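Justification of resources, computational component.

The compute hours requested in this renewal are based largely on the per-chain cost of generating structure records like the one below. Each record pairs the submitted sequence with a full structure-token output. That output is archived, and it is also reused by downstream analysis tasks.
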Amino acid sequence: MTSRPVPTVTPEQATTLRKDLEATGWGVNSVHHLIGDVADAALRREIRLPAVRAIARVLDEDRAVGATPTPTAVLTALFMLGQSVTTAELDAALRRTRTRGALETGLVEPAPAGSDGSPRVRARCDLRPHEATGLADGEPDVRWWVASDLGELETGRALEGDHVLGIGGAGLTLASLTPRTPVGTALDLGCGCGIQTLHLLRHADRVVATDISARALAYTAFNTVLAGTGPDRLELRQGSLLEPVAGRRFDLIVSNPPFVLTPPAVREAGLPLMEYRDAGRPVLPELVPALGDHLEVGASAVMLGNWEHHEWQDWRERVSGWLPSATDAWVIERETQDPVEYATMWLRDGGTTPERDPAGFDAALSAWIDDFAERGVEAVGFGYLLLHRPDPDSDGARREPWRVLEEVGTRPAGPRGAHLARSIVVRSGLAAMDDDAVAGLHPVVAADITEERHLTPGQSEPSVILIRQGGGFGRAVRAGTALAALVSVADGELSVAQIASAVAALTGADARDLRAEMVAATRALAADGFLEL
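The structure output for this chain reads:
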């Protein structure tokens, strides 16, 4: 298990440290500016060398002329790149906390002295800035400093089984997908270092954070105290999946669960159980059906997941079997990987590499792909799952839950939580409406929609019409005559039925068929954000 203890701070120490970090201006952009575009891009791909070289140049130039390096350079080198710094440099960077305070809280430990005999320290944890945009127009952005265990890049060793992961791509994706509407209670299921908890505390009155790992809960406690969160708004509970919150319901649940599909044979080949990603069994078939019982009326759950693609079976059939019967559900598969690609990625993720341990890597990889082949697994899907418990008071008469399972390969930048929240409301409203009611709606084309027309040379009519979405998931819809006409005149003046009648009169199309086509198109386009109702 990991030997270094998790840092701890009192509220007073956290206030002092936070003031020090705020004063340094150490943020995402300042690190980018310091190391440059190439090194910053490499670091995001977990390639450390360019950033180490860039920081070394900055530090060496300052040290050569007897100048004190900038706090951004010192803190980046120390906490993000695993480099030792002198105690004098850390004293200058953290003017109130100083090296003594950093040692007391467990952020750093003594390191071998430099060639000039100067005392030095090295990090005992990874600490880095993270920033989030304001929740409302005009609201200032927020910056946190988030601690986690030192990664393979800093230590040069494979990760321990109780490793607590820092801010990664999956966590950032989940944060971008989560609706940020104000709620009373929220649950961060499998909190890890606490990055989702920090986001939830911005718009939830009270947050419960759970994890099977005591070490993860300790990091969440440290990070939330450092962010200035009062103890009355956060409850930390240890246990597996939903066990710590049995019988409780929430207004919002978010989860990046340990969903990696690691076969038992890989364990037998020597790969340790990684608490942050492995449950020791397929977790989604157990977790997803149980989530419905923990949602308040009108509440939603947002989570990430993996699922297997088997021979002769559509992945939707498998995932549909997990969905709670009384909830709306939206499942998006964003990409797939073949068995070799999937196994290799997760082996490297944990620090098992062919460069470091060729025999161990080959044994684990062979066991993984043999298990997939034996069970007929052709690929593994990556994606998002959203659940919503219908509210009869807002949706009208009791209705059947709506279900959407789809493949969306686009990866738009920026938060998508607001888009998902709007889409859930629209889908729920439309699900309670019959076709006549939808035909009576007066749609308005969304402001981010553009149209592309592709013409064959010499032809006056387009051969292809694409309706593109600038926000949301950046979808593109190939439009026929009816759909293109609907979008082109949807300004709120005419109802769907009126538009259908006008187009039928102009084209000679069957009015009833055209109306049915436009009603179906309105449902789909409104749900995806092309039309506003």
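The first strand starts at residue 85 and ends at 86. The chain has a mean pLDDT of 91.
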